[in-house]
Amino acid sequence: TYNGYHHDEL
Amino acid sequence: MNIFRFAGDMTHLASVLVLLLKIHTIKSCAGISLKTQELYALVFATRYLDLFTDYISLYNTLMKLIFLGSSFSIVWYIRYHKIVRRSYDKDQDTFRHYFLVLPCLLLALLINEKFTFREVMWTFSLYLEAVAILPQLVLLQRTRNIDNLTGQYVFLLGAYRALYILNWIYRYFTEPHYVHWITWISGLVQTLLYADFFYYYFQSWKNNVKLELPA
Hints:
The complex is a heterodimer.
Chain A: no helix or strand
Chain B: H1 3-25, H2 34-47, H3 58-80, H4 98-110, H5 117-131, H6 134-142, H7 148-174, H8 181-193, H9 195-206
C-alpha cells in the first residue's frame, strides 16, 4: 500500500 | 486490473470524449449542465490528490490527467469560451449544486475509512460523484428535445459506474480482504440515479424515437 493510502482505482 | 474496470474506465473516457467532441466541434453546450461539470471537476480534484505523491501505474496517472484536464477544460469552455457560452442555458440549469457539496463533505467527515485529510477528501469525492449527475438529469427533464450527443454522454457516464459495480463484485470474489462498503454503496446509489434515464434511453433506442424524459 502507499503509506496507508490504498485506492488503486480511478 | 480486470475487464470490468477497464471497460468502465474506457466508457468513462468515452463519455468525456463525446462531451469534448460536442463542445469543441459544434461549439455548443446546449442541454449540458455546467453545474454537473463543475461538480465533476471538484470530484476529480479531490479524488486525485495523490496524483503527484503516489505512483500506481502509467495508466493510472495518465487517466487521472485526462479526467482532470478534460473536466476543467469543459468547465472553462462553458464558462468563458465566447461562442460555447452563448449556448449555455443558465435559466434552465438552476439546480442549487452548492447544496450538494456541504452535505457530502459533512458525511465524509462522519463516515470514512480513515480520518485523514486525503482519505476524507477521497470519500467526499465518492459521495459527491454519486449526486453530481442530478443537475444534468434535472436539466434533461426541462430540455424538451435532447440531442443525441448529450443523450450518449449521460448514458456512457451512467454505464461506467455500472461496470465499476461488476468490477467490485469481481474483486470481492477474487481478492481477499477487498471490502470497501463506502465505495460500493455510493457507487450503487450513483448508478440507481440513472435508472429512469436508462429506461427512457433504452425505450427511445428500441422504438427508434427521439429521447424524451417525462417532466
